[in-house]
Specification:
The structure holds 2 protein chains of 2 kinds.
Chain A (H helix, E strand, L loop, with lengths): L6 H4 L1 H8 L5 H20 L17 H24 L7 H17 L4 H23 L4 H22 L1 H4 L5 E2 L22 E2 L2 E2 L3 E6 L2 E6 H22 L1 H11 L1 H6 L5 H25 L2 E2 L6 H14 L6 H14 L6 H7 L5 H11 L7 H15 L3 H14 L9 H12 L1
Antiparallel strand pairs in A: 1-6, 2-3, 4-5
Chain B lengths: L6 H15 L3 E3 L19 E8 L6 H18 L25 E8 L4 H13 L5 E4 L3 H14 L2 E4 L16 E3 L4 H16 L4 E7 L2 H16 L3 E8 L7 H9 L4 E5 L3 H12 L6 E2 L2 E2 L1 E6 L2 H7 L7 E4 L5 H5 L6 H12 L5 H20 L4 H8 L2 E3 L7 E3 L6 E2 L2 E6 L10 E7 L1 H4 L21
Classes of the chains: A mainly alpha, B alpha/beta.
């Protein structure tokens, strides 16, 4: 959907629909696609039979599926800021972290219902984003990025040591049996820590379906996250299609002109920054709802950089791109990093000894702890050949297969926009 | 995105999804549960999977690599490959080298990155995806506490690796977690009498402490043990874990009137702070009419290697040393057997991190075999109060009250003229277990409860 913002150029019929509030037909099909993908993920992500050697590549277990969806929300939120306004925040992880800590504190003080955590994390992240945004948005471009980075690193340093009583410092913030939890039980009936629930539905509950050689896990926590993603995605489409979204695009294309028109972009920017921060907070809240521990590391600059990568990899400014990018990076992090030398040796054991050793030596640096290297290469390739991210790749592929000469050209919109700009 | 969404298409998809869901269904109350046998990840078939979660990147990657070598060796020995290592010296003879309960041992590895978040994620995927029945490893107390909590919730056993903080079996102890390694309190209790003996009982100490969980408990332990014997603590300064240059922390030490510097640092921190302190000429100084001394409560060969000749003459404590049996005799049997099989496989002697991980794997396998079940509660029962010998530390007790091992503590000193890079420390004394034993509700360990063991399902 790299071209959604320029859709009217190629689909004049949609223009009237775009002006009216609500979603176009295209948006609805995208929405339905996302709902279907998310709902069927436990099946789609487990394509290999449990006993096969390819089961290594199955991603349909609760922890990873939750991560896909949670980081999807994080990236969708980041994209509202970066994709629409072009403001590159390098400190978004701070809001995710703030949301996480707020969430764990709710579990400690109020009770184990995830709603407490989710509401509090969104609120706290929103307030925090308001403060950071108020200061950072005085500048734009690289200065804005540096300011947000500075704030995030400051929050990380505070969380890691100075604020240890609030954040748990190096160990991370954990639940304890002596927490008050005024609306819930302090200690579960079995003498252990209580677990996170949604009105009694245990987040760890799963429905395990054995379908022949396959095993599918439908996890309650995952579906709670999934519903959150679908709502977040819907809100994001509405923002993209709204007059508010149009203002944000105006900020991206030429802020100076906007100023001369007599419009003050600042309130729009601040609102976007706060919305984006709240998305990050929601992601943080969901993270602790699935696993009630928050470490300061999730505020570190590497975590902020990760969401930038996700968004660019998937396709900045597109609706579904960030979700795809988040999925891809988390897949690499969790699946590729697990391939160790032993696994490689079994794969290549069909080859003669010498050859298999050579193959293992060649492939090994790119898997296991070298997964960053593979990801880096892929990122470079995407940025060089598919500046519109994975979404652009999908569209290109679709055009080839459809042989539809009338299909919207992929790079057309950008070129045309440039041409228009030059004309004026 | 131009494909049409028709009613017919939607119906088809719905029917297909419905058919998929109508296949035989097993309901469970827990994702980690296995309905068949009543506990998390009950091994099916003829293999059992263990999860080794060690730092492969970050400041403790060296320790992590050595731990992984030990785990691989332990798995080999359990499966009856190699020379069997400590299986022949271990006082319990339940293990026969045919895997665990006849099931071949397989393992998966993960990277903790020495971050609690990453470590927990890695452990969760081992439990959920790979079906690991036991998680072991780790090289930092923060990580150990976080992963131990996760294992308790998930209903698998956690056999802690290198974690020295009191909290692991103190205020954060868990029924499903077990620690073989010694702790801060034991270091303090073992070191204090020797320090007083060597340096006198009227010393003034200055502490530099790594600013996290382990640093705090170590400072507290050394402080209270030495103060009980007459020492005074002049000041205790916290240093950030990420600090690499400690000069600004060393400068005020001499003006403070202290004559002993205690470095509650580990890994790269300790290498840097000790190097700075020695370069500042602290050890050549005199203060209060006495020679200025430096102490490092937790020693390791890997750190000694990093610090080079600066380590000469500096006191510290260790859980185990590869020279124990050679120098102190049969009481520490098992040591040579382990050093030999490790040395044959990798070409150098094992570190104490490798030792504790190897021993933990064996202890787990033995407990399962004696219990006749992989169920965490059965393992808990078999390990709690278990007394054993022949694993390199002499007679040892796995105390039931806090799942902490009680054994002798090795006090070491950096060698003045090391012969090679693996023989950097000399054993000064071995403090008998009685001197380092404490009550389960000792103030430094107070506030923790084991809770009840969790089988998961």
């Amino acid at each position: 959907m790299a071209v959604t913002d320029n859709q009217p150029t190629y689909a004049p019929k949609a223009q009237s629909a775009a002006r009216a509030p609500g979603l176009t037909k295209r948006d609805w099909s995208l929405m339905i696609l996302v709902v279907a993908l998310v709902a069927l993920a436990p099946i789609l992500l487990n394509p290999f039979p449990t006993d096969s050697s390819l089961a290594q590549f199955n991603a349909g277990y609760p922890d990873l599926m939750q991560r896909f969806v949670i980081f999807g929300i994080f990236a969708v939120g980041f994209n509202i800021l970066f994709g629409l306004t072009g403001y590159l925040s390098f400190g978004h992880a701070a809001f995710l972290g703030a949301g996480s800590f707020a969430g764990v504190w709710m579990f400690k003080l109020l009770g184990m219902n995830v709603l407490f955590a989710i509401v509090a994390s969104v609120a706290v992240a929103g307030v925090f984003a308001l403060i950071v945004g108020y200061v950072s948005l005085r500048r734009s471009g690289i200065y804005f990025s540096i300011l947000t980075l500075a704030f995030a690193q400051m929050s990380f340093a505070l969380a890691y040591s100075v604020l240890t009583p609030i954040t748990g410092g190096e160990t991370g913030l954990q639940l304890s049996k002596s927490d008050p939890r005024i609306f819930g039980e302090q200690v579960a009936a079995d003498g252990n820590l209580p677990v996170t629930t949604l009105f009694g539905l245990d987040m760890r509950d799963s429905l395990i379906v054995d379908a022949g050689a396959w095993e599918f896990v439908f996890n309650a926590g995952y579906y709670v996250c999934a519903v959150a993603l679908i709502i977040a995605f819907y809100v994001s489409i509405r923002i993209f299609r709204s007059p508010f979204g149009m203002m944000l695009r105006a900020v991206k294309s030429n802020q100076q002109r906007l100023n001369y028109t007599g419009l003050n972009p600042k309130p729009y920017m601040l609102a976007t920054f706060v919305i984006s921060g709240m998305y990050a907070g929601l992601a943080g809240g969901l993270m602790v709802s699935m696993d009630p521990l928050a470490g300061a590391e999730r505020m570190q600059w590497t975590a902020s950089g990760e969401v930038v990568l996700m968004t660019i990899l998937g396709g900045a400014g597109t609706l579904i791109g960030p979700v795809l990018g988040a999925g891809l990076i988390k897949y690499f992090e969790n699946i590729f990093s697990k391939i160790n030398k032993g696994v490689l040796e079994t794969w290549f054991s069909v080859f003669p000894d010498g050859l298999s050793d050579v193959l293992v030596t060649i492939v090994y640096p790119f898997v296991g702890k070298g997964w960053h290297l593979t990801l880096g290469i892929m990122f470079m390739l995407v940025v060089i050949f598919l500046p519109g991210g994975l979404v652009q790749g999908v569209q290109k592929a679709a055009t080839v297969f459809r042989r539809d000469r009338n299909a919207p050209p992929v790079e057309g919109p950008a070129a045309e926009r440039r041409a228009q700009a030059e004309d004026k | 995105m131009t494909n049409k969404l028709t009613r017919r298409g939607a119906l088809k998809t719905g029917a297909a999804a419905g058919a998929g869901l109508a296949t035989p269904i097993v309901f469970t109350s827990n994702v980690w549960a296995d309905g068949h046998t009543g506990f998390t990840n009950a091994p099916q078939g003829d293999t059992v999977t263990l999860g080794f979660n060690v730092p492969q990147t970050g400041p403790y990657a060296d320790e992590g690599a050595d731990e992984l070598r030990a785990f691989q060796l332990a798995v080999e020995h359990l499966n009856g490959e190699g020379d069997g290592g400590m299986l022949s010296t271990f006082s319990s003879k339940a293990l026969e080298g045919n895997g665990i309960l006849g099931k071949r041992v397989e393992f998966v590895t993960g990277d903790t990155q020495t971050k609690s978040d990453a470590a927990r994620a890695s452990a969760r995927s081992m439990i959920e995806k790979d079906g690991a029945i036991m998680i072991s490893g780790g090289s930092s107390s923060g990580v150990a506490v976080a992963v131990q909590g996760l294992c308790q919730e998930a209903g698998v056993i956690f056999m802690a690796g290198l974690t020295h903080s009191n909290d692991t079996t103190g205020k954060d102890r868990k029924a499903n977690g077990f620690r073989h390694f010694f702790n801060s309190y034991m270091s303090g209790a073992a070191l204090a009498p020797i320090l007083v003996d060597q340096y006198g009982n009227d010393r003034k100490a200055y502490h530099l402490t790594a600013d996290y969980n382990w640093g705090y408990t170590t400072e507290e332990a050394v402080r209270s043990s030495t103060e009980a014997l007459g020492w005074e603590t002049v000041a205790a300064v916290k240093t950030p874990l990420t600090q690499t240059d400690f000069s600004s922390y060393i400068t005020p030490v001499l003006q403070s009137g202290a004559d002993v510097l205690v470095l509650n640092h580990y890994g790269g921190n300790m290498v840097n702070s000790l190097t700075n302190a020695v370069q500042f000429g602290l050890r050549a100084q005199e203060a209060n009419g006495k020679q200025f001394e430096i102490i490092v409560p937790l020693y390791s060969e890997l750190m000694a290697r990093g610090a080079g000749e600066n380590i000469a003459g500096i006191f510290g404590s260790q859980n185990w040393d590869w020279k124990l049996e050679n120098q102190l005799g049969d009481r520490y049997s098992g040591t040579n057997a382990f050093v030999q099989s490790f040395g044959e496989k990798y070409g150098f002697p094992p570190s104490q991190a490798a030792h504790t991980c190897y021993v933990q794997t064996l202890l787990y396998a033995d407990a399962v075999t004696r219990a006749g079940s992989f169920a965490p509660c059965a393992v808990d029962e078999a390990l709690s109060g278990f007394e054993f010998d022949g694993l390199g530390n002499g007679p040892t007790l796995y105390r039931a009250d806090d799942h902490q091992c009680f054994k002798d503590v090795v006090v070491v000193r950096g060698k003045e003229n090391p012969e090679n890079e693996f023989d950097l420390v000399e054993i000064v004394e071995v403090t008998p277990v009685d001197q380092v034993t404490y009550a389960p509700d000792h103030p430094q360990f107070a506030g923790g409860q084991l809770g009840t063991c969790n089988n998961g399902a």
